[in-house]
Amino acid sequence: xxxxxxxxxxxxxxVYDAVRLVPAGKVTTYGKIAERxxxxxxxxxxxxxxxxxxxxxxxxxxxxxxDGSLGGFYGETSGPEIERKEKMLVREQVPFIKQGKVDPVxxx
DNA sequence: GTTGTGACGGGTC
DNA sequence: CGACCCGCCACAA
Length: 108
Fold this sequence. Notes:
By secondary structure, the protein is mainly alpha-helical. It has helices at about 10-20, 30-35, 40-50, 80-90; strands at about 30, 65, 95-100, 100.
């Protein structure tokens, strides 16, 4: 195994586990994940997902920011990956207020 | 133990 | 609306 890759910590495992519980057609926020696992905050959750070694096994694309913006995808805060993320959500019938913004009613 | 970084959140201007 | 600032927690060097 490469020295660059490391094993996920208990906190990160808890984050990935919580994200897996998010059903298709719904989204959740980084803060909600933090509250659900009762560990850390949106910051730490975002950092953990950024390293997400379980993608796409873990539907990290269903995790968005509290303001409805998509946040990031595959370590990219913007770019073609983000557009792909939005496409995936639309494909799962997730309601959008406008391009790049998810409807808060879809928050799980 | 200290410092810097990050896919955040809320508040202020 | 956007831009800016501060606080928050977890992690690596």
